[in-house]
Amino acid sequence: MEEWSILFVTFQTASVEYEFISIADLRQKVTDDATYPYRFSDRENVSKLSDEAFLAQFNTENKERFAAIDENDLDRPSVLIQWSENGI
Question: pTM to 2 decimals?
Fold first, then answer.
C-alpha cells in the first residue's frame, strides 16, 4: 500500500494550524485514545476501511474542527473554507 501524505488542518477560535502527516499516523490518532478530540463512530473498524473511505468518514464526522486532505488533491493553489452554523 502506498503511504499517503495528508494535510491535517485544525480550526481554532482565532487561528488555523496545519501539518503534513501520514494517513497511518491519522488512523493511529483516531484509534489510540477514544477521548482525543476526534470523532469517529466506528473506531474498532478503522483498519478495515480503505484510505478513501477513512478520510471521507473522518472529514464528515470532524468537519467542525479538523480537515484531512490528501496531498495528491493539492495539485494547484486551493482555498479551504470552514463554515460555521454558529456564527463563530
Answer: 0.76
